[in-house]
Amino acid sequence: MKSLLSIRQLSPATSENTGSHTPSVAEYFNYSGTEGELSGGARRITITTPQGGFYVWTKRVGNNPAMKLLLLHGGPGGTHEAFECFDSYLPKAGIEYYYYDQLGSHYSDKPDDNSLWNIDRFVEEVEQVRQALHLDKNNFYLLGHSWGGILATEYALKYQHHLKGLIISNMMSSVPAYNQYADEVLGPQMPAEVLVEIKQIEAENDFTNPRYMELLLPHFYTKHALRMPMEQWPDPVLRMFDHMNQTVYVQMQGPSEFGIRGNASLLHWDRSRDLPNIEVPALTIGGQHDTMDPKHMEWMATQFPNGRYLHCPEGSHMAFYDDQKTYFNGMVNFMKDVDR
Asked: Could you list the active site residues?
């Protein structure tokens, strides 16, 4: 998704598993003796890449030796800000969690080198972040939303021996299947004349045309991205879109807001056949009104040897806002079930 500048203008330490123990409030917020004590949990981590070393930003919230959740934001090129609503639910559940801006995003370094924006390098970045945060198979849960779900899937296929649990939020296992869903299901839900105009703008590669967002806002964004009137969109979501790195986004996702198109590097990504190889407990989450096919995400759960599906009947692509209680109740229950 694009920056919301135009939208606003148009819109009115490693520990042994301690089981299912839930820390007290004092224990949960005790950072004494940790690297995050001085900074309130914020930390820059040095990562190495084929183009040298860079910093990525993380922030720890809470303290639970058995449940540590690393959050992979969407985009690509999005930011941790969209996850800020997790503050309303995870502390009271006693779950330790980590905000994290991927390389190229918001608080992290933003190198001007397009060779860095590929799946394999991002996977190695996540692994370096895991090592720096001392997460391991006794406590490490990984949640990826949207593009983050692609990244989490790829990470699990290579490094699942470090994972305790995997959560794929609002992402299908196949970009071609996603594009087909957009064409055959989401598109026909629009008024015919609106869809024709959107397709014409895309065919002419006229993505900066203000008319493009004028059409998408009422007919796509507020129906499938976040089902609230634009003037009610939460502040973290608005800030996330404002801070989106469009260079990373367009290279990997493409300029279209209606599927992954053109020369996008993710165009042919498909891991559907590989899901049975992920043996750790896995939860897929889908919304009834999602940009992604909820039936496909339900099917994904059947492909994991230890899979579960959480359906958000009122939810869209950002179901952690528009079907919040369903989303967080189901996610927390999954993590606590794994922790038993």
From this structure: 146, 290, 317
The rounded distance, in Å, linking the Cα atoms of 244 and 42 is 21
Q: Which domains does the chain possess?
A: 36-340 (3.40.50.1820)
Is residue 259 exposed (0-12), middle (13-18) or buried (19+ Cβ within 10 Å)?
A: buried
The token duo for 9 is 């203008």
**How crowded is residue 210: how many other Cβ atoms within 10 Å of its Cβ?**
10
- How does pLDDT run across 66-87, given as a tens digit for each residue? 999 999 999 999 999 999 999 9
What's phi and psi for 338, nearest 5 deg? Answer: -65, -35
What is the secondary structure of 266-305 as a DSSP string?
Answer: TTT-B-GGGGGG--S-EEEEEETT-SS-HHHHHHHHHHST
pLDDT tens per residue, range 84-120: 999 999 999 999 999 999 999 999 999 999 999 999 9
Rounded Cα gap, residues 261 and 251, in angstroms = 10
Q: Are strands 165-169 and 282-287 parallel, antiparallel or unpaired?
A: parallel
C-alpha 82/C-alpha 154 separation (Å) is 22
The C-alpha atoms of residue 174 and residue 192 are separated, in whole angstroms, by 27
The sheet carrying 52-61 orders its strands as 42-49, 52-61, 96-101, 68-72, 140-145, 165-169, 282-287, 307-312
Question: Tell me, what DSSP letter sits at residue 87?
Answer: G
Residue 167: Cβ within 10 Å count? 26
248 closest CA partner among 316, 183, 151, 155: 151
Secondary structure (3-state) at 45: strand
CB burial of residue 121 (10 Å; 0-12, 13-18, 19+): middle
